[in-house]
Every structure is written in C-alpha cells, then in structure tokens.
Amino acid sequence: MLAEPLVEGQKNYVQYGACEKEATQFVRKPKDDKRRDPDWKP
User: Fold this and answer.
1) Is the pTM of this model over 0.85?
2) Which part of the chain is the Cysteine-rich CPCC domain (predicted)?
3) pLDDT tens per residue, range 1-42
4) Residues contacting 10, CB < 8 A, separation 6+
C-alpha cells in the first residue's frame, strides 16, 4: 500500500512541487518546455 494516498500526493505536488514536503530537496525544477496541463486537477 502507498504511504500517501494519490490525492494527498497530488495536493502536495501543487503546494510543494513534490509528493511530500520532505522530498523537495530531491526534485529538480521543470525544464522550460515542460508545463503542467492547464486542465490537470488533483
């Protein structure tokens, strides 16, 4: 079973840019040609 439910991880992604706050140090900034789908919703 996943440690974080999918919806919680998606909400964290919106807030922190990672699945959880503690993981932000391991996440790179998105490349210029990579943008979130404007229709994406957690």
Assistant:
1) no
2) 6-33
3) 566 688 898 899 889 989 889 999 999 988 888 888 889 877
4) 42
Distance of CA 37 to the CA centre of its chain: 13
User: Which residue from 11, 3, 8 is spatially nearest to 40, judged by alpha carbons?
Assistant: 11
Torsion sign over Cα 22, 8, 6, 40: negative
What's the confidence (pLDDT) of residue 42?
A: 72
Helix spans in 1-42 (H): 6-16
In angstroms, the CA 33 to CA 27 distance is 17
CB atoms near residue 35 (< 10 Å): 8
